[in-house]
Specification:
It contains 21 helices and no strands. The chain is mostly helical. The chain has a domain of 148 residues. α7 runs parallel beside α18 and α8 packs antiparallel against α9. One of its GO terms (cellular component) is plasma membrane. Keywords: Cell membrane, Membrane, Transferase, Transmembrane, Transmembrane helix. It is found in: Cell membrane.
């Protein structure tokens, strides 16, 4: 069992980040970029130092093995455990230098494996400032740097999401340049498939059909080129391409760890194994259909909104109904919600931050006996978080404000001392 004082220190750091976010909004802080970077980096480094006994399974096993495979010029999908690596090798090329540093210089993997996600997350912080309106860019940049959710996803879990968002948010920042915006979103999809959710919002943020065709073509071309060059970059046999394609297209996280499926599978646990249980498979199928319907509905409702609000709505709709979820997915809409906060954004950040803190910092510290009592309730506790996600959507911003205003992604002006932009 983890020392309770260490757990308390981690939670105190989460509380500190939350208080800094709130104080920045109340007092209208606009720290210069280097100050914001120093604070953001400091919070993440301290968290990194406090979680060296926390060992996320995918970081310790799957990510490490993917880096080893690239160093040995082996395809990561073909040389991993079942369901261990289900992505193109792009992020594995980020992991390979980290594995080399660990093996050559003796730096612990739980340190070096989290350095790149922290660096990428700081890059997202800078882009949030670019995405926000000019009068609030410094405030929003600082708030993202202090927000507990991205701190934990990068410095505790060491996940890929920060790199996905670095490319995806960058695409919205340069949306007026369709080729570049599309290429950046294509890179995001090449890390993990979920940033494809942002493509319709990005296309709606462009002024005409020609620009949309260019962006879509660039977004499709980048993953295609990366896949076709796998024999050169990752040593993938050409004969393995059908297996690679099935693996990439067929990946889905565990069912029953989030939202309504968690409630159903708590009432009726899967037997004998989740992958063979008919009830489990039915929940998964229904969840896929519901997710598709929710995403389409969000696109329709926010089709006339600013591109950033559409991206926020679509990714939040996915969160609300999906049957397959990981805690790190809560980060997807966060940069857009910080750059141009809906009226109830503080509730969103509080709910997602608390849920993430319990999952990353509290549950790993429990004894097996305590886990047996409280662990199964954690997925069920996601239901109120889902409700908060829906409640805090920018329902009043489903259309642009001025007639003729272009669908550009810049945020609405917000008074410096406001907690968040009001729904309009």
């Amino acid at each position: 069992m983890t020392d309770p004082r260490l757990v308390a220190a981690r939670l105190a750091l989460v509380a500190l980040g939350s208080l800094l976010c709130l104080a920045a909004a109340r007092r209208g802080w606009r720290p210069p970029v280097w100050t914001a970077l120093a604070v953001g980096l400091g919070l993440r480094v301290v968290m990194l130092a406090l979680v060296q006994d926390v060992e996320p399974y995918d970081l310790v096993n799957d990510f490490h093995r993917a880096g080893e495979n690239i160093l040995a010029h082996r395809d990561p999908i073909l040389h991993t455990r079942p369901l261990g690596w289900n992505y193109t090798p792009l992020y594995a090329f980020v992991l390979a230098p980290a594995v080399w540093v660990e093996q050559s210089l003796g730096v612990p993997w739980l340190v070096v494996g989290r350095i790149a996600p922290i660096a990428f997350d700081l890059g997202v912080m800078l882009l949030v400032g670019r995405l926000a309106s000019p009068g609030t860019s410094a405030l929003r940049r600082f708030q993202y740097g202090c927000l507990p959710l991205p701190i934990m996803v990068s410095a505790v879990h060491g996940q890929m999401e920060p790199l996905c968002l670095l490319f995806a948010v960058g695409a919205f920042v340069v949306v007026r340049r369709p080729w570049l915006a599309g290429a950046l979103l294509g890179l995001a999809v090449s890390v993990k498939s979920w940033p494809a959710l942002f493509l319709p919002a990005l296309l709606l943020g462009l002024p005409g059909a020609r620009e949309r065709i260019r962006a879509a073509a660039a977004a499709a071309a980048v993953p295609a080129v990366l896949l076709l060059t796998l024999p050169l970059t990752a040593g993938t046999p050409v004969a393995a391409f059908p297996h690679i394609a099935r693996t990439l297209l067929g990946y889905s996280p565990s069912v029953g760890t989030w939202g309504w499926p968690a409630v159903l599978l708590e009432v009726r646990p899967a037997e004998p194994t989740p992958w063979e249980d008919p009830f489990y498979l039915a929940v998964r199928k229904v969840g896929t259909l519901l997710t598709l319907a929710a995403v389409v509905a969000a696109l329709w409702l926010w089709r006339r909104a600013r591109a950033t609000d559409t991206a926020l709505a679509v990714s939040s709709a996915f969160q609300a109904v999906t049957a397959s979820h990981g805690v790190q997915y809560l980060l997807w809409p966060t940069p857009f919600a910080v750059a141009d906060p809906p009226r109830r954004a503080a509730w969103l950040f509080t709910a997602t931050g608390l849920y993430t803190a319990v999952g990353y910092l509290v549950l790993p510290s429990l004894t097996p006996e305590t886990w047996a009592v409280w662990g199964p309730w954690y997925p069920v506790a996601s239901v109120p978080v889902v409700l908060v996600v829906l409640w805090t959507l920018p329902w009043g911003r489903r259309a642009r404000q001025a007639e003729g205003e272009g669908p550009v992604p810049e945020a609405h002006p917000v008074p410096a001392g406001a907690r968040g932009a009001a729904d309009r």
